[in-house]
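DM from R.C. (forwarded with permission)

"hey, sorry to bug you on a friday — could you get me a structure for this? deadline for the figure draft is monday and I only need the backbone to look sensible"
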Amino acid sequence: MATVKRVQKAVTAEVHAYVNATRTSCQVAALPPEYRQGKPQAIKDMAQKNLEKARQEKADAYSAAAGCDTSRIIIPQISGGGGSAGGSADAYRICIHADDEPCDGFLRMEATLLAACMGRNHRRQAEREGTCAAMLEKTDCTGMHVVGGETWDYRPISEEDKAFLAELEFRVNKIEPECREAYLELKAARHEQERTQEYMEDIGPKFSSAGPKGYEIYKRALANRDKAQQKKIQAEKKLKACQELLEDNEAETGTGEEQSDTQNKQKNVRPCNADEKAAFAQMLGSWRSISLGPNMTISGSCEQATGTEKYAEYCERPDATYNATLKRYEVKFTGRMEGESLQVAWTPDSTDTRSTAGSGSCRVSPDGTLSCSGIPCGINAKKQ
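My reply, with the result:
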C-alpha cells in the first residue's frame, strides 16, 4: 500500500513540476530580451531540473511498485484556461527582481551597507516596474494550472510568494521601509475592528433583548468593538505620524540640486558656486566611519583647527577628545546614525574668502551620504 501511495505522490509531483517548468519557460520568454539572462534564466533552469528530478522519482516509484496494482492511480489533469493569479505573481516576480543584488552578505555586517544594498534594489525595481506591468498584460501563458488528483489540486502559497506579495502590497500602498511596522499594525487593527463589528451585528438582534445574561454578552461585544475601533484610530495616527516624519526628513536631508532647491524654498539660501562647494567638501572631507556590527561606531571631526581660526562643530551626543597632532576634536557616536542629527557651526578660515559663517545640522543617510542644511549653500559629502 505504501508503495502505491509513493507512486501516486510521484505522479502528482511530476504533473506539478511539468506545469511549473512550462509556465516558467513561457514567462521568461515573454520578458524583454535584456531581462532574460541572470536570475530569470536561473529560475527557468531550476524549474527544468525539478521536472527532470520528478520524472526520475516517478520512474523509480513505478519500478518499486512492480507487481502491485496501480490501476487506481489518479493522474491530475492540466487546465490552461481562466488565468491564474499565482501565475501572474510568478511572472511579475521574475521580471521585477531580475536585476536584484544579493544583500544577504550585509545582514551581520553593517546596517548602512544593508540599507544601501536594499535601496539600490528598490531603485532598480522601480525603474523596471512599468516594463514588467506592460509585459504582464501581454503574457498569455500564466493560466496553466493543475486540477484533479485527490486533494493534490490545492497548492498552498509558498513563503517566497507570501514575501513577494507582502512587498508588492507595501509598494502599491507606497509604504516606506521605516513605516512598514506601523502599516502592519494598522492592517491588523482594521481586521480586528471588522471582526468585532461583524460579531456584534450578528449577536445584536439575538442578545440585546434576551434578558440580563444575553444583554451582558451584547455589552461585552459592544465594548470589544469600541476598543478595536480606538486601536484602529491610534494605528492610523501612528502611520500618519511616521509618514509625515519621513517627509520632513526628506525635506531636510535632500542632496545635490534637490537639497539646494529645498533650502532655497524653506530658508532662502542661495545655491553654492563651484568654489564654495570645493571649500565645504574639503572641510567635511575628514569624515570617516568604522563599522562594529549592529551597534555601529561612526567617528568624525567635531572641531577642526586651521591656524588661529577654527571650523567649530558641536554635536548632540559628544564624547570628544582633542587630538593635538591633528589639531582637532574627534568625536565618536555609538549607535545607528541613520536619521540622527549632527549639529554643526563654523567660522571660515581667515584666509578663506570664499566661505561665510553659518550653522545648521548634518545627517547621515543610509547610503552613507552626509547632508548638511542651514549652511550658506547646499552641500553634501560622502563618507570616505
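R.C.: lifesaver. The mean pLDDT is 61.
me: no worries. The chain has three domains: 2-172, 182-253, 267-382.
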